[in-house]
Amino acid sequence: ISNLFYEELFSDHGILSQDDIDDILTCLVEMGLKQYSTHFVYRYLRDRAADEIMRLCRALPMTSMETCQALINRMLDEIKIQAPSFFHKLPLCIKDEEVQLLFFRKCFEREWISSDFLQRWCELLLRKGAPWDVAEEYSPAWIFRKACVEQGGDSAAWRIWAKIETQENNAGEYARENTARWIYREACLNREVDSHTWLAWAKLEEQEDNIGECEKENTARWIYREACLKREGDSDVWLAWARLEEQENNIGECEKENTARWIYRQACMNHDGKASVWFAWGRLEEQQNNMGEYEKKNTARWIYREACLKRGVDSSVWLAWGQLEERENNPGEYERENTARWIYREACLKRGVDSSVWLAWGQLEERENNIGECEKENTARWIYRQACMNHDEKASVWFAWGRLEEQQNNMGEYDQENTARWILHEGIKRFPNDGSLYSLYSNLELIHHSPERARDILRKYVLYNNRAINNLAILEYYNGNIDSDNEYCTVKLVKKMEAAQEKTLGSILYLYYCSLLLGRKEEAKHYYRQIQQHPDYDSIDNTWIKEYICLCKKAVIGESDTTEIPEIFNKKDHHIY
């Protein structure tokens, strides 16, 4: 149904009477539901029918209340039979809040409502001034209690109820029903909820400074132990318990129950702990200066090796292991196990790790001055090329590779493989919205006195992200494109910067310097006052932006004297000149 149809017929100023609108929408909804229920074979027809129903939901506020209720009931009748995937999207299509409330209530009356619906419904009620009173029917508190206690609400519903109760009335006491504490205990001990709910309960007690002891019920420690040892708590709960003991300086030993070390070992060795728990255990042993040796159990080295080679952990643990050996001055050789080099190669070529490990490997070879060539295995160049060309790694690796080639004075051209220009050009093609690549690329062109290329790069980035406007405005100024019909002239770019709804400290600094370059001292003073009022004013370092101005100036006109940069404030003296 076209927008014109809606505007001319269904709007407040449309030509149809209320009865006409009710009749037409009723027929259209019935037609859409019939099409949806009959198109089982051709999914695209079924999806199109679902889309029609969602579009029609937008017109529900135009119907009478009686018809609106009837149509919602009719849709829910069909949905209860078919349970379509688009059900959760229906409230988003209903723009009118009163109709949304009606929709949620009809779902609730049928005992067919998700935790997401409950949250949206009750937040909308609270926003419209409904009281949080469990004794008042259809108040948010009453709705949550009925949904959770009487209708078998899921874990998320219990958590949302407890969270809002905490916001409204704090934690409360266990002896009193419907308090946050009572809700969590009821959910965890009597309703078989998931680990996230146990974790939320324990976190509440931590916030209430009720750490307690493992033997005392309802303390954070008791909750964690109960969840982990008796309720099959997942790795997140084990990790939170161990971190609590770390904070309480209860590091202990692996043989002593309820200490951080004992908890980590139990989680990892006996409860299939995730990578995050192995990582935290290894880090704890590092902090305790227990690097140890690979033959001795429970040392950092033993933990990392056990996790990586036998437990199939993710990149974070491999990276931590490699970095540990680097810090221990053990880059070693590739032929020898447990050296940093062996670890990184094993992780990257055999274990499918992510960019962080490839990057660490390449940077290690850079520090070891093993730049090499792209054809020679295990050199920095070979590593970066392997990561980028054969393993689809992230922009950070392309960035490191391009920077390395520039440092080696291998700028080359766009069509020369493995040169800095070719690398950054290829990286941008793969990651067109990554600012670091554009920034590095344009700066390299400026350093090598190619301001036109730098402009082209930044102009391309502006198409994807407005963050490039700041640098481009300064570069256009020194290229003489200050105030013209060109959309990229400095004046027009500054207007876009000024129009931005949210301004960071960095963007205000750019506006300050652009105003000075344009000779607008009053505007510059205005922006400087904003800079002074910023909470991070005392930590401002404007050196980087002045260096960028010098870089642009030198690239275009061959001068880079910083004393010629206009200024009206001195950061050291904290006042306007």
Descriptive account of the structure:
Helix content is 63%, strand content 1%. It has 577 residues and is mainly α. Among the domains are: 1-112; 432-577. The longest helix has 21 residues, at 18-38. Mean pLDDT is 92; it is low at 572-577.
Tally of DSSP helical segments: 29
Radius of gyration: 31 Å
Sheet-strand content, in percent, reads under 5%
Biggest sheet, spatial arrangement of strands: 1-2
Distance between the termini: 64 Å
Question: Which percent range fits the helix content?
Answer: 55-70%
**Beta strands, count:** 2
Shape: globular
Structural class: mainly alpha
* Low-pLDDT sequence parts: 572-577
Mean pLDDT: 92
The biggest beta sheet is recorded as: 2 strands, antiparallel
InterPro entries: HAT, Mbb1-like, TPR-like_helical_dom_sf
Protein name: Tetratricopeptide repeat protein
GO molecular function: mRNA binding
Organism: Candidatus Mediterraneibacter stercorigallinarum
Q: Could you name the key traits of this structure?
A:
Mbb1-like; mainly alpha; 2 strands; globular; two-stranded antiparallel sheet; HAT; disordered C terminus; 1% strand; TPR-like_helical_dom_sf; Tetratricopeptide repeat protein; 577 residues; single chain
